[in-house]
Design a protein that fits this description.
Layout: H1 2-28, H2 36-66, H3 74-95, H4 114-128, E1 133-136, H5 140-155, H6 160-163, E2 168-171, H7 181-198, H8 205-220, E3 225-226, E4 236-237, H9 241-244, H10 266-296, E5 307-310, E6 321-329, E7 335-342, E8 345-350, E9 354-356
Parallel strand pairs: 1-2
Antiparallel strand pairs: 3-4, 5-6, 5-9, 6-7, 7-8
Helix pairs in contact: 1-2, 1-3, 2-3, 4-5, 7-10, 8-10
């Protein structure tokens, strides 16, 4: 019991450090910009803060191994991780460090005018915060919005710190969409499947907005890598962690029968499109992970303790994850089957039905 008490006391010091760093960031975030001295100080604190999570993860895993019922301690881990990743996102924004996690934000506009783009940009800033820079092609609506903002900041007698709050617009060369690769890849993931579904029905503006928000949630729910090395932790890092600090959830809905969409009422049509999009995107993402694992990023080995994505039918936003407990070689010495520990128990799956998540 003395060991548990000492470990719990040590864990409280990490929580105290997290609170101190949170208060420090909130103090820095009150101003419009940070000075060079503050930037250097933040970089030094942030480098130490990044190491703290690895230490907390090892400590929490040790506590969970000594406890008789480790399930009760998962809430402690989740609370710490939620606060930790939200502060990481804030620190990166203050330092101007971009995280290329391909999080998606979809906005519906009625036309391609500068006014419509400015309205969409204002909605984005109100919900996500002001971006430091925007990279886009040379569309007339994008160039027009940039010119309007620059004229406003230059023609008005504003204070210098307010004038610096403008957004930096970066335009790629004409006919080079590959220059904005991450954004184009995210748009492709949406349009590739969505265009094949929307020709089946016609949505109103409100219905289309709801449908896009549901598809945005699907794209931002995909697992990227494991959050910890704890064998009892089946959670994965997702793009939504960088947006809201936790995984995305959805309001439960009954399964919509796979029938002709025109036979469904208006609300069920939205559910039908989302569920159809989920199945297509889920299969595509699983195939992508299997391709990377087999050919590009690893030797194809599946090791005990590794977090894997299980290929099976699940409701939208629910990715089936498990930890490898053991592997079983065949008579030829080649391993093709793994035993997995999941939230619902232990199962066995062949390698073609599991996808190891990247370690980095």
């Amino acid at each position: 019991m003395a060991d548990i008490k000492s470990l719990l006391k040590k864990r409280s010091t990490y929580k105290c450090k997290l609170t101190i760093f949170t208060n420090y960031l909130n103090l820095l975030n009150t101003g419009s910009t940070i000075s060079e001295l503050q930037r250097l100080d933040l970089e030094e604190r942030f480098s130490r803060f990044n190491v703290m999570y690895t230490e907390f993860d090892a400590l929490q895993s040790e506590i969970e191994m000594l406890e008789e019922d480790p399930e009760d301690l998962l809430e402690e881990r989740e609370d710490f991780e939620r606060q930790y990743f939200s502060q990481v996102a804030l620190a990166r924004s203050l330092l101007g460090v971009s995280s290329k996690v391909k999080a998606v934000h979809l906005e519906l506009v009625t036309d391609l005018t500068t006014e419509a783009y400015m309205a969409a940009l204002n909605r984005f800033v109100a919900r996500r915060g002001k971006p430091q820079s925007i990279t886009s092609d040379n569309g007339t609506n994008f160039v027009g919005a940039s010119n309007d903002l620059q004229r406003f900041l230059s023609s008005n007698n504003l204070a210098s710190h307010i004038a610096q709050e403008g957004i930096e617009f970066i335009f790629t060369p004409p006919y080079t969409p590959h220059f904005n690769l991450l954004a184009e890849a995210a748009v492709k993931s949406c349009k590739h499947h969505l265009k094949r579904l929307l020709h089946l029905t016609h949505f109103t503006f409100e219905e289309m907005t709801t449908c896009l928000c549901k598809i945005e949630a699907v794209l931002n729910s995909r697992p990227l890598t494991s959050l910890s090395s704890d064998p009892n932790d089946f959670s994965a890092l997702t793009p939504s962690h960088f947006l809201i600090g936790r995984p995305l959830l959805t309001v439960p809905h009954p399964h919509v029968a796979d029938v002709t969409i025109t036979r469904l009422d208006r609300w069920k049509r939205i559910q039908h499109v989302q569920q159809h999009f989920w199945r297509r995107f889920h299969n595509e993402y699983v195939s992508l992970l299997q391709t990377k694992t087999k050919w590009l990023a690893s030797t194809g080995e599946v090791k005990p303790g590794q977090l894997v994505l299980i290929k099976e039918k699940t409701p939208p936003l629910l990715w089936s994850l498990g930890r490898v407990v053991n592997t079983y070689p065949g008579v030829d010495g080649i391993t093709r089957v793994a035993e997995l520990k999941t939230k619902r128990g232990t199962i066995r799956r062949a390698f073609n039905c599991i996808c190891p998540l990247p370690l980095h």
